[in-house]
């Protein structure tokens, strides 16, 4: 059974996992399917960090991950240089903070920055079924409501090179 505090993280990781699973095969006619119960099972056994439980389900033809995650604690601020994040809230409630100006961030993976504080952040309240597109270079932070987990799917979409 999944702890209520793990649902936000589960959602995020489910998004990442879904994308990864779909891309495991390079043929365009292959369909990858994970049931809701399979996703829940992944999220009870997978750990990305203490703040996030997640799993990569597959990868796109461009090797980009499909993820699902559950967040029980506020996440770090993230900025992605080359990727838009497309997310769907699966369960739980929380807040998404976004903004163009972040101070105090540190380099993470190539083309990504982690941490810091979003200045003049815009806040959106999140509920199951919400659909979100976070453009590349926009700072963002998921914060589950106190005592809840926020679960969401995230699909990374690479921006076209100019």
Overall description:
- This protein has 162 residues and is α+β, with helices and mostly antiparallel strands.
- The chain has helices at 7-22, 36-45; strands spanning 52-59, 65-71, 78-80, 83-91, 94-99, 102-103, 106-107, 112-114, 117-118, 122-126, 131-134, 139-144, 150-158.
- A hairpin with a 5-residue loop joins strand 1 (52-59) and strand 2 (65-71).
- The strands form four sheets. The chain has a five-stranded antiparallel β-sheet. Strands 3-8-7 form a three-stranded antiparallel β-sheet, with no helix packed on it. Strands 10-5-12 form a three-stranded antiparallel β-sheet, with no helix packed on it.
- The protein has one domain: Jelly Rolls, CATH 2.60.120.
- The termini are far apart.
Order of helices and strands: HHEEEEEEEEEEEEE
Report, as a whole number of angstroms, the end-to-end distance. 47 Å
What proportion of the residues form beta strands (DSSP E)? 35-45%
Nearest-angstrom radius of gyration?
A: 15 Å
What's the overall average pLDDT, rounded? 80
Number of extended strands: 13
Tally of structural domains: 1
Structural class: alpha+beta
Sequence of strands across the biggest β-sheet: 1-2-13-4-11
Residue share in helices? 10-25%
CATH architecture: Sandwich
